[in-house]
Write a structure and sequence with these properties.
The protein is about 20% helix and about 45% strand. It has about 90 residues and is α+β, with helices and mostly antiparallel strands.
Length: about 90
């Protein structure tokens, strides 16, 4: 389990009621948690960025960070758009 503190985490996927949550440190995954989907806030789905608080070795809070989720999705979309352009297109 991860040390007590606040972390950024991303819901990788939810399958058969189990959420796979990747806990990050400095933007890199450091821990993979498997949680019941009922433990997550209602507005969480695959790709949602969350803020989690761990205390006493247990997850105390999980909050969706919808602004960070939108930023990551826009960044990924922009990166995909750049990579999908032909080299001779403007903006490449």
């Amino acid at each position: 389990m991860i040390d007590d503190g606040r972390y950024t985490a991303v819901v990788d996927r939810i399958e058969e009621g189990i959420a796979v949550v990747l806990v990050e440190c400095d933007g890199e995954p450091v821990e993979e948690l498997h949680l019941g989907s009922e433990e997550l806030p209602e507005d969480v789905s695959g790709g949602t960025v969350c803020r989690i608080t761990v205390g006493g070795g247990d997850i105390e809070t999980i909050e969706a960070d919808l602004a960070a989720t939108d930023e990551r999705r826009e960044s990924a979309r922009s990166r995909f758009d750049r990579l999908s352009r032909r080299p001779d297109e403007p903006g490449s």
